[in-house]
Design a protein that fits this description.
This is Alpha/beta hydrolase. The chain has about 290 residues and is of the alpha/beta class. It has one domain: Rossmann fold (3-Layer(aba) Sandwich). It is built from ten helices and nine strands. Strands 1-2-3-5-4-6-7-8-9 form a nine-stranded mixed beta sheet, sandwiched between helices.
Length: about 290
């Protein structure tokens, strides 16, 4: 790993290449990776999903965005190679994200939040709206969103089924069981293996338990006031079992300048399943 101070002005545009860097904040060291070009405008900060580390990003999605933008993928406290105790409140995760953004010397960012990352992203907006220019949220829901308190049960059932069928849990959770979904799942699992060296540390069961507590708490909360009025893109799978489709309406109602795209025959893994169409629409938003 290298430190934050050693980052170059222009970094790789291939997900498999950039080193894992660290930045120290208070009592913890956070890992992150950056790729693209620092001359590509406002950086895109990526917040990943539940049970994920830095290797869980779809390489083709990140590479496509990095063709013209500076992309920074950051790790959560206690997850993967980041040190400290894993957080079980999105308010605390968001405070860490804000501290990381500031520690990296950034004053304005675009936020890309996938699933749980979108929940953390909403908290970033609440705590520091002045830092954020645009948001892209995929497969996520607002506080008190329909079905969010059932995510633990959905996850447990899928883990057990995966053990019995020798199937990756992300295949079961992220993709539909149609032929299109099965093909997309197989291709996605292959893409996740492209980075051979410098991989992040595996996610532990303790991390998964803490993050599921955070989702459950989020699902029981009343929506907080939202003061963000910038451009927003909401992406969702029409057959999402982890974050049901019914979350879209209450989420998009919180953003006065939001664009919605719902993809049929897509589950929670709406981004990897529709990566080409989704990276195109994200690029369009980032050009505004």
């Amino acid at each position: 790993m290298t430190s934050a101070q050693q980052g170059p002005n222009d970094v790789s545009v291939q997900f498999v290449d950039p080193p894992t860097r660290t930045v120290a904040i208070a009592d913890a060291r956070f890992v992150y990776r950056e790729l693209g070009t620092q001359h590509g405008g406002i950086p895109v900060v990526g917040l990943t999903h539940l049970g994920a580390n830095l290797d869980s990003w779809d390489p083709e999605v990140v590479d496509a965005l990095a063709e013209s933008r500076w992309v920074i993928l950051i790790g959560y406290r206690g997850v993967g190679a980041s040190t400290g105790s894993v957080q079980d409140r999105f308010e605390d995760m968001a405070a860490d994200v804000i501290a990381m953004i500031l520690a990296l010397g950034l004053t304005r960012v675009d936020v890309l939040g996938i699933s749980m990352g979108g929940m953390v992203g909403q908290e970033v907006l609440r705590q520091a709206p002045e830092l954020v220019e645009r948001v892209i949220f995929a497969g996520t829901g607002p506080q008190g969103g329909p079905g969010l308190t059932s995510m633990t049960a959905v996850m447990v059932r899928s883990i057990l089924r995966g053990l019995l069928t020798f199937t990756p849990v992300t295949t079961l959770l992220f993709f539909t069981r149609t032929s299109t979904g099965r093909q997309a799942a197989t291709a996605y699992q292959a893409r996740l293996k492209r980075r051979y060296t410098g991989r992040d540390k595996p996610v532990t069961p303790a991390v998964l338990r803490a993050q599921l507590r955070a989702v459950n708490r989020w699902g029981h909360q009343q929506p907080a006031a939202n003061t963000f009025t910038g451009p927003a893109l909401i992406l969702h799978g029409g057959s999402d079992r982890m974050v049901p489709r019914e979350n879209v309406e209450p989420l998009i109602s919180r953003f006065p300048h939001a664009e919605l795209r719902v993809f049929a025959d897509s589950g929670h893994g709406v981004v990897p399943q529709n990566r080409h169409a989704i990276t195109d629409v994200i690029k369009q938003l980032l050009q505004r």
